[in-house]
Every structure is written in structure tokens, then in C-alpha cells.
Write a sequence for this structure.
């Protein structure tokens, strides 16, 4: 039987979600704790990879287990997990799903948010990227419009990744000001490795007036990672939401 786990994590101390030899990852910590409590080797399949230092306000993973776990048992398991897991990880719920529902492949879309601080704020700095130059959000939004739709995003992908293609369908991409922050929201059916951070880093060059909106469009069309600008730092990026068609 298959079970979904909804969780959230502060990615600061972790080398991303996915298991890495000789590195501490969210997946490794969770699998160890689940295996301890369920007295079986538990393997978790996540809804996607997150880079080292990236956070998730909502994340889903699934695991298979031979026995039926009642709702009451899942609630008790959630409590025990939260008691044992480090303070950077919280389990929100554990629930049974259809046996063929896959945390990664059945996600309808994913939404990321990136937080840019445009003034000094002692309560924002751990999770925002401080930019000192003046940014033109209107121009960045004009450039972001060229991201919409289904197209090849090789220009914003980490090189030499093991994927069949670099096509993604971006459904929303925009900047908005919230208090003294600029927040970039992007929703797509899938994301390539390092994609959001590369997009944000390049859009910030647009906002600073260092490249034009036409330059940004050209970078997409060239399908060459060397043409895009430096990736924005990981600590200000959050996986915000993952959507499924739960029955």
C-alpha cells in the first residue's frame, strides 16, 4: 500500500532533498527516522529535487508499506516523527493514496517563490537575498512574460543533467512587492536543476539595467547556459506549493 507524506523543511543545514554520498540530506534523515519507527527499511520518493540550502514550505513524498496503516496510526506516527526529527523538518500529515499515485510524476504543477530584500530588515535576512542596487520590477515583469508557455529552458539548466529533455511548461512567472521585499513567483509542470535560481539571477540583471528585455528573450532562445547570468543564492528560494489530483 502507498502512503503520501506532506512535510516542510528549512533547507539551510541540508545538501538538498536527494540522497548524496557523504552529505546530509532531507531524504536521508527522513528515511532513517521512518525506518526506525516502522521497523522496516523505508524508501521515500520525493516530488522533486531541491538544491542545497533551498527550503520547502510544502513538499510531498511517498513510500510503500505492506501493512495497512490506519488514520489513527498515521497520526501517532506523525507525532513520533516530529518528536525525533531535527527542528528543521516537520511532518504535516501521512495518508494513504491510490497504489499508482507517484509523488514526482503525478504532480500537476509546482510553485516556487524567491525573496529579494530591497532594504535592510533584521527579520528577513536569513531567508531573503539582499540586493543593494535599485531594481525595476516593471521591466523584470516584462522580461518574465517571455518565460510563459512550453519551451526549451536549456539556458537556465544545470549542465550535464540526466533528463530526457529540457522542455517545461511555465504557467505563471511574475514579480510583486510585499512590504520591503520583491517576491518572484513561478509555477510550472516541472523544473530543471538550478532553473529557478538561474532565471532569478538573470532577471535581476534585467532589473538593474545591465541587460535588456530583448537580451533576456534572446538568452532563452539561444538554449545555452553560458548565456544566462549567475544563479541567485539558494537561501532565498522556497518550494511553495505542489498540486495533485487527490481522490
Amino acid at each position: 500500500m502507498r502512503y503520501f507524506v506532506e512535510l516542510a523543511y528549512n533547507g539551510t543545514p541540508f545538501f538538498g532533498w536527494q540522497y548524496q554520498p557523504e552529505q546530509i540530506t532531507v531524504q536521508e534523515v527522513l528515511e532513517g527516522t521512518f525506518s526506525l519507527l516502522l521497523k522496516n527499511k523505508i524508501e521515500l520518493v520525493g516530488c522533486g529535487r531541491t538544491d542545497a540550502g533551498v527550503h520547502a514550505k510544502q513538499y510531498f513524498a511517498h513510500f510503500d508499506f505492506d501493512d495497512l496503516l490506519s488514520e489513527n496510526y498515521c497520526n501517532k506516527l506523525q507525532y513520533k516523527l516530529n518528536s525525533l526529527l531535527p527542528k528543521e523538518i516537520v511532518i504535516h500529515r501521512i495518508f494513504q493514496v491510490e497504489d499508482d499515485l507517484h509523488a514526482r510524476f503525478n504532480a500537476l504543477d509546482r510553485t516556487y517563490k524567491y525573496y529579494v530584500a530591497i532594504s535592510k530588515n533584521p527579520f528577513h535576512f536569513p531567508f531573503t537575498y539582499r540586493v543593494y542596487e535599485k531594481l525595476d520590477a516593471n521591466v523584470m515583469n516584462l522580461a518574465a512574460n517571455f518565460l510563459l508557455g512550453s519551451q526549451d529552458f536549456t539556458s537556465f539548466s544545470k549542465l550535464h543533467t540526466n533528463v530526457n529533455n529540457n522542455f517545461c511548461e511555465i504557467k505563471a512567472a511574475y514579480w510583486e512587492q510585499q512590504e520591503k521585499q520583491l517576491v518572484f513567483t513561478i509555477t510550472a509542470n516541472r523544473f530543471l536543476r538550478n532553473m529557478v535560481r538561474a532565471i532569478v539571477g538573470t532577471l535581476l540583471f534585467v532589473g538593474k539595467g545591465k541587460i535588456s528585455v530583448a537580451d533576456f528573450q534572446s538568452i532563452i532562445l539561444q538554449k545555452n547556459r553560458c548565456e544566462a547570468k549567475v544563479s541567485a543564492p539558494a537561501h532565498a528560494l522556497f518550494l511553495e506549493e505542489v498540486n495533485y489530483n487527490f481522490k
In short: The longest helix spans residues 71-84. The mean pLDDT is 94. The helical segments are 26-38, 71-84, 137-144, 195-207, 213-222. The first strand starts at residue 2 and ends at 9.
